[in-house]
Amino acid sequence: MKESKKHISREIGLEIGHILGKGLFRLEHLHYGLWKKGLEPDILNLHTAQDEYCKFIISHIPTEVKTILDVGCGAGAFSKRLIDLGYKVDCVCPTEYQNKLLEQRLGKTSEIFKCKFEDIKTDRKYDMVMFCESFQYIDLDRVIDIAAGLLKQGGFLLICDFFKKHSADACGIKGGHKLDKFMNLIGQSSFKIIEDIDITAETAPNLDILDKATKEVMIPVVSAAERFFQSRNPIILKLIKWKYRKKIAKAEQKYLKGNRAGKDFAEAKTYRLFVCRKVK
Ligand SMILES: C[S@@+](CC[C@H](N)C(=O)[O-])C[C@H]1O[C@@H](n2cnc3c(N)ncnc32)[C@H](O)[C@@H]1O
Asked: Which ligand 1 atom is nearest residue 74's CA?
């Protein structure tokens, strides 16, 4: 798939995820939840797990930080929470749908850069540039230098996201930069890693929840819809199935046979919090 088409389907996927999550499960964020011991991995507990994820990040913001650039801030729920805690927060968001929600939520308190991070143009300098599950979407060859240019001397880069552990990633869950490449790039950059925390075990239950929802809700709904069309318009259904046969086969492979559970995620990915300081 061409990069622009990929980008559009990813953004529409996030938009649908936000509408369903907020409407059905009171979810404000687009990131995984952090499943602490004792919290049952159930979709009804996802808003609590997302809240734990926010608290975890807040507890790792260095005390010197007053100004933050929240990159790929989604609908801005976390930015708003940081503003309420007294931080001055600006946002980067390339999506029209999310930008509308951001403007409603943040009003004039924040500058919203309505573009990709790679295209940001500003003279402002921040104490911290933050990526909450948005790092994987940014061009890895450029992101570190651009972040360095937006930081004051001694400023911080906070990344909370998952990475691929192995170059041959057989996991059915897409996404994540290669960890070894990131480590190489950060090692050669003006940053020094001051915190590196592995939260793979606490984030992997999100995949079990998604896998369960796919198998117990999405697939039965699609199958019922198919039977409905079969009873009303069998010829058109046959034509549609033929036209999209490759896509259907791909989706069946991905959702029915794909390795998409928590254990597959933990095997192939590593979810990390990195706090890095600009030292040069
Ligand atoms: C998984 S969501 C995370 C949203 C939010 N940070 C949160 O924690 O709820 C990823 C976000 O990255 C944004 N994004 C994707 N590509 C981007 C880019 N090149 N530059 C800036 N943001 C990007 C998407 O629009 C989306 O808001």
From this structure: 27
Instruction: Give distance in angstroms: CA of 74 to centre of ligand 1.
Output: 5
**Cα–Cα distance, 10 to 212 (Å, whole number):** 21
Mean of the per-residue pLDDT values for the chain? 91
CA distance 35 to 191: 30
Residues with CB under 6 A from ligand 1: 11, 14, 29-31, 71-74, 78, 92-95, 98, 116-118, 132-134, 137-138
Candidates 3.40.50.150, 3.30.1490.100, 3.30.70.2860, 2.60.40.1080; CATH matching 3-200+270-278: 3.40.50.150
Q: Is the pLDDT of residue 18 over 90?
A: no
Q: Which tens digit of pLDDT belongs to each residue from 187-208?
A: 999 999 999 999 999 999 999 9
Q: 211-269, pLDDT tens digit by residue? A: 888 888 888 888 888 888 889 889 998 999 899 898 888 777 777 766 788 998 999 99
Q: How far is CA 195 from each of CA 57, 96, 230, 244, rounded to the nearest angstrom? A: 12, 34, 56, 47
Burial class (CB in 10 A: 0-12, 13-18, 19+), 63: exposed
Angle at 134 between CA 85 and CA 205, to 5 degrees: 90
Q: What is the pTM of this model?
A: 0.88
Angle at 139 between CA 113 and CA 203, to 5 degrees: 90
